[in-house]
Amino acid sequence: MKTKSKQLAVLLLPVRTGDKELEKEQVEVANAAAELLMRGGLRAMSIMATSDQLAAMSPLIESDWVYYHDPFLDRADVIYILCLPGWEDDELCKRALAYGEGHKKPIVLISVENL
User: Fold this and answer.
1) What's CA 88's distance to the chain center, in Å?
2) For residue range 58-81, what is the model confidence (pLDDT) as tens digits?
3) Whose CA is closest to 106, among 70, 80, 85, 78?
4) What is the C-alpha separation between 67 and 83, in angstroms, rounded?
5) 8 Å CB contact between 33 and 115
6) 1-46 pLDDT per residue, tens
7) In the predicted model, what is the mean pLDDT of residues 49-56?
8) Which of 2, 19, 36, 76 has the CB geometry, 3.0–4.6 Å to 10, for a possible disulfide?
């Protein structure tokens, strides 16, 4: 018997601050947020947490990485954006907002305080 699958949530956050320690802390916050979303019944994925190590090793320029996220956004049932400092100016967050709006996907803005 096939059971109904959980909603797939993609979690995005600003990470490119130029401060490696701050970026590491933000990825840890994203992991904790993804865990809370999973405990809440969603299949959650933090793109930055999973792609950050690849980006550090990749010869791709940062603008190429923006397009890496599109397939994940396409599969997502809902897009969560973790509103850490700088999220409003972050290119990936802006792109995810536009993508979600253009593809009629729910977008949920969350902060650390309301997790």
Assistant:
1) 14
2) 665 556 666 677 888 888 899 999
3) 78
4) 21
5) yes
6) 343 567 888 887 776 667 778 878 888 888 888 888 888 888 887 7
7) 61
8) 76
Angle between helices 47-57 and 20-39 (to 10 degrees): 140
Residues pairing with 110 in the sheet: 82
Question: pLDDT at position 63, please?
Answer: 60
Contacts 24+ apart (CB under 8 A), 71-77: 72/10, 72/45, 72/47, 73/10, 73/99, 73/100, 73/103, 73/105, 74/103, 75/8, 75/10, 76/8, 76/9, 76/10, 76/105, 77/7, 77/8, 77/9, 77/105, 77/106
Kindly report the pTM of this predicted structure.
0.78
Task: Give the chain's length.
Answer: 115
**Closest C-alpha to 107, from 18, 94, 6, 61:** 94
